[in-house]
C-alpha cells in the first residue's frame, strides 16, 4: 500500500465524523427540496395511484397493468396499508431505501479507497444525486423517484455486490446464499439493476477464481449456492401472485419487464434512442471523446501539481505530502476557477465519458490482478475495483452515448461518478506518491474539481426548486409546483373535477396524480396513455377496456410527446381512442389553453354523455 492510502491522518478521521458530515449534507438538500421532489403530473403519480389501488384490493397485473417486477409496487402498497395512504408515507419508505443505498455504497467505497475518498463519495451522493432537480420536471431523485422499482432494485443490487465481495473473504455459504437472494430481489424490479448486480458479482468471482487459481468445482459451488438464493424470491413471488391471479399471469408478472418487452417496439421510440445516444452516433461519440480529453487534462494537472519525480522514489521524508492545509488551499483555488470560469453547459456534460472511465478502471484492475505486487495492493482490492467498474458500467448501458447526471442519471450514472471520484481522491494521489510526488497536492486539484461540480449542480438545482411555490394537494399529500407553468391550472382542474358526479376518471395522456388526489380510480387496468403504453400493449386492448368500463370523467392534459416521435395524443397516435372519447364525452370545463393543440398548457375536463 502507498503512503497516501495508509496515512493515519486520512484513515483516522473518526467514522462518526464522516457519517455525520454526509448525513448533514443529505439533510440540507432534503430541506431545500422539501415537498418539491415529484412532478405535478408526470410519472410519480403512478407510484401513488398504484399503491392506493393495490391497498384498496385491486391486483397487480390482473386489475392493474405494470411494466416492471412486483417488488416495489407491493412494498408501496404495504406502506399504504400500514401507515395510511399518503405521499409522505411513501416518501418515508423511499428515504429508508436511500439510506440503504448510501450505507452499501459507503462500505463499497471504503473497500476500494480511503476514508477520505469514501466521505467525498458520500457527499457527492447527497449533494448531487440524492435530492437535486436538474431538469424542468421533478421525479429524478431518491425521495420521490419516477419509478420506485429503480431505487429499490438499485439497493438490492448494491447489497448483492457487497455480499458477493464479502463471500470472497472466507467463501461463506451463507454470504453466497445472501448474494443470490439480493439478486433475486433485484430481478423483481427492473432489468438494468439486476444485470448490473449480476455482472458485478460475476466479474468479482471469476476474477478471483482466475487470480487465486480456484478450481472449477469451487467456483461452480459458489454459483450454484447463489443461484439457489436467487430462485427463492422468484418462487415466492410466483406463488404469492398466483393466489390472486392465474398461474401464467403470476409467472409473467414475476418476469416483469422481460415479458413486457417481448414483441414490443418500445426500444425503437425516439425517446429511448435519444436517451441512449443512438439517435446521433457520430455526434455523441465525438462529444464523449472531447469531454474525456478534458478529464484527462484534469488528471494530468493533478499529476503535475503533485510533482512526481521517478517511479520508486519516496517523498515520505519531506513535509509536503503531510501538510493537509496545502491540499485544502489548492482545492479552494480550483473550486473558484471551476465555478467562475467554466460555463454551466460545460459542467452539464461532465458525465459523458463515464462509460470510457469504467472501461479504463476495469482494465487497470485486471492489470493489477496479473501483477499482484505489493505496490498494486491485494488481489481483493483489485477484484473489488473491477466489480464496481463492471457494476457501474452496466448501469450506464441505457445511456451509454448520452450519459448525464440529471434525468435517469440520478441513479444510473451515480455509481460510476462515485467510482471516478474514488479514483480522483485515492487511486491517482496514491500513484503520485509512489512516484515521489505529493498525494495531498494531487488530491487538492481533484477535490477542487469535484467540489466545483457539486457547487454548480446545487446552484442549478436550487434555481429550479425555487420556482416551485404553488401548493397542490393538502396535508401529507401536498406538493409544490411551478407557478407560471402548471400549478395553478392543476389546482383549478382539481376543483372542477370535484364538482362532477361519479367516482371513476381517466386522464389522457398522463396524470395519475389527479386520480390519486381526487381519489377517483380509473375503471380500466390502464392508467397511462403515453406512446410507451400503446407501444407495449397496443391500442386495441386499451380502447376495448375503455369501452367495457367507461369512466365517469375524462381529463385531457396538455402534453407534447414529440420526444417519443409522436407529438400529440389523438392526433399523432391513439386516434381511434380519441375519436371514441369525442363521441362519448362532452366538455365540462376548460382550464388554461386548449390542450393538445400547441396553444399552451391547459386541461380539459370532460363528463360522460347522458
Topology:
Blueprint: H1 3-6, H2 8-11, H3 15-32, H4 44-55, H5 71-83, H6 87-112, H7 115-130, H8 148-170, H9 173-187, H10 191-212, H11 216-242, H12 247-255, H13 257-260, H14 270-276, H15 281-306, H16 324-340, H17 344-347, H18 354-371, H19 379-395, H20 409-412, H21 414-434, H22 439-466, E1 468-472, E2 479-482, H23 483-498, E3 505-508, H24 512-518, H25 531-537, H26 539-548, E4 553-557, H27 575-584, E5 585-592, E6 602-608
Parallel strand pairs: 3-4
Antiparallel strand pairs: 1-2, 4-6, 5-6
Helix pairs in contact: 3-7, 4-5, 4-24, 5-8, 6-7, 6-8, 7-21, 7-22, 8-9, 8-10, 8-19, 9-10, 9-11, 10-19, 11-12, 15-21, 15-22, 16-22, 18-19, 18-21, 19-21, 21-22
Write up this protein.
- With 610 residues, the chain is mainly alpha-helical.
- It contains 27 helices and 6 strands.
- The strands form 2 sheets. Strands 3-4-6-5 form a 4-stranded mixed β-sheet.
- A hairpin with a 6-residue loop joins strand 1 and strand 2 (479-482).
- The longest helix is centred in the C-terminal third of the chain and has 28 residues, at 439-466.
- The model is unreliable at 1-12, 314-321 and 373-377 (pLDDT under 50).
Amino acid at each position: 500500500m502507498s503512503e497516501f492510502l495508509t496515512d493515519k491522518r486520512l484513515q483516522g478521521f473518526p467514522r462518526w465524523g464522516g457519517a455525520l458530515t454526509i448525513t448533514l449534507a443529505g439533510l440540507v438538500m432534503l430541506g431545500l427540496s422539501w415537498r418539491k421532489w415529484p412532478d405535478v403530473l408526470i410519472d410519480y403519480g403512478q407510484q401513488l395511484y398504484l399503491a392506493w389501488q393495490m391497498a384498496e384490493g385491486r391486483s397487480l397485473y390482473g386489475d392493474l397493468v405494470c411494466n416492471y417486477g412486483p417488488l416495489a409496487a407491493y412494498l408501496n402498497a404495504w406502506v399504504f396499508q400500514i401507515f395510511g395512504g399518503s405521499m409522505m408515507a411513501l416518501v418515508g419508505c423511499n428515504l429508508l431505501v436511500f439510506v440503504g443505498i448510501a450505507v452499501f455504497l459507503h462500505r463499497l467505497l471504503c473497500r476500494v479507497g480511503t476514508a477520505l475518498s469514501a466521505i467525498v463519495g458520500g457527499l457527492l451522493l447527497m449533494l448531487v444525486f440524492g435530492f437535486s432537480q436538474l431538469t424542468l420536471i421533478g421525479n429524478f431523485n431518491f425521495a420521490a423517484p419516477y419509478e420506485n422499482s429503480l431505487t429499490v432494485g438499485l439497493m438490492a443490487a448494491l447489497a448483492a455486490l457487497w455480499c458477493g465481495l464479502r463471500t470472497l473473504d472466507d467463501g461463506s455459504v451463507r454470504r453466497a446464499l445472501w448474494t443470490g437472494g439480493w439478486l433475486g430481489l433485484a430481478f423483481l424490479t427492473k432489468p438494468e439493476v439486476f444485470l448490473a448486480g449480476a455482472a458485478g458479482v460475476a466479474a468479482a468471482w471469476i476474477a478471483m477464481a482466475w487470480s487465486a487459481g480456484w478450481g472449477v468445482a469451487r467456483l461452480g459451488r459458489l454459483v450454484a449456492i447463489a443461484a439457489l438464493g436467487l430462485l427463492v424470491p422468484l418462487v415466492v413471488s410466483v406463488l404469492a401472485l398466483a393466489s390472486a391471479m392465474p398461474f401464467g399471469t403470476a409467472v409473467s408478472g414475476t418476469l416483469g419487464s422481460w415479458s413486457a418487452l417481448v414483441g414490443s417496439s418500445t426500444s425503437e421510440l425516439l425517446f429511448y434512442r435519444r436517451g441512449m445516444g443512438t439517435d446521433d452516433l457520430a455526434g455523441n461519440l465525438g462529444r464523449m471523446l472531447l469531454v474525456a480529453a478534458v478529464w484527462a487534462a484534469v488528471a494530468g494537472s493533478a499529476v503535475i501539481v503533485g510533482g512526481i519525480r521517478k517511479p520508486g522514489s519516496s517523498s515520505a521524508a519531506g513535509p509536503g505530502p503531510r501538510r493537509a492545509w496545502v491540499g485544502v488551499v489548492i482545492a479552494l483555488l480550483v473550486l473558484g476557477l471551476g465555478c467562475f470560469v467554466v460555463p454551466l453547459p460545460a459542467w452539464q456534460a461532465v458525465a459523458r465519458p463515464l462509460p470510457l472511465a469504467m472501461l479504463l478502471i476495469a482494465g487497470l484492475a485486471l492489470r493489477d490482478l496479473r501483477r499482484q505486487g505489493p505496490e498494486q495492493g491485494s488481489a481483493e482490492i483489485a477484484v473489488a475495483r473491477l466489480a464496481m467498474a463492471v457494476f457501474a458500467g452496466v448501469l450506464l448501458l441505457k445511456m451509454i452515448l448520452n450519459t448525464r447526471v440529471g434525468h435517469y442519471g440520478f441513479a444510473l450514472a451515480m455509481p460510476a461518478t462515485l467510482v471516478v471520484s474514488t479514483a480522483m481522491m485515492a487511486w491517482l494521489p496514491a500513484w503520485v506518491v509512489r512516484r515521489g510526488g505529493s498525494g495531498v497536492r494531487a488530491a487538492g486539484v481533484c477535490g477542487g474539481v469535484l467540489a466545483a461540480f457539486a457547487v454548480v449542480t446545487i446552484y442549478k438545482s436550487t434555481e429550479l426548486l425555487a420556482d416551485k411555490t404553488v401548493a397542490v394537494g393538502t396535508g401529507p399529500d401536498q406538493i409544490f409546483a411551478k407557478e407560471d407553468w402548471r400549478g395553478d391550472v392543476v389546482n383549478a382542474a382539481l376543483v372542477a373535477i370535484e364538482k362532477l358526479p361519479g367516482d371513476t376518471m381517466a386522464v389522457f395522456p398522463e396524470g395519475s396524480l389527479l386520480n390519486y388526489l381526487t381519489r377517483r380510480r380509473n375503471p380500466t387496468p390502464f392508467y397511462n396513455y403515453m406512446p410507451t403504453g400503446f407501444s407495449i400493449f397496443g391500442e386495441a386492448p386499451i380502447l376495448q377496456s375503455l369501452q367495457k368500463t367507461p369512466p365517469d370523467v375524462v381529463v385531457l392534459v396538455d402534453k407534447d410527446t414529440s420526444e417519443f416521435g409522436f407529438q400529440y395524443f389523438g392526433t399523432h397516435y391513439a386516434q381511434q381512442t380519441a375519436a371514441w372519447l369525442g363521441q362519448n364525452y362532452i366538455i365540462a370545463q376548460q382550464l388554461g389553453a386548449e390542450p393538445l393543440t400547441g396553444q399552451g398548457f391547459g386541461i380539459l375536463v370532460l363528463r360522460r354523455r347522458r
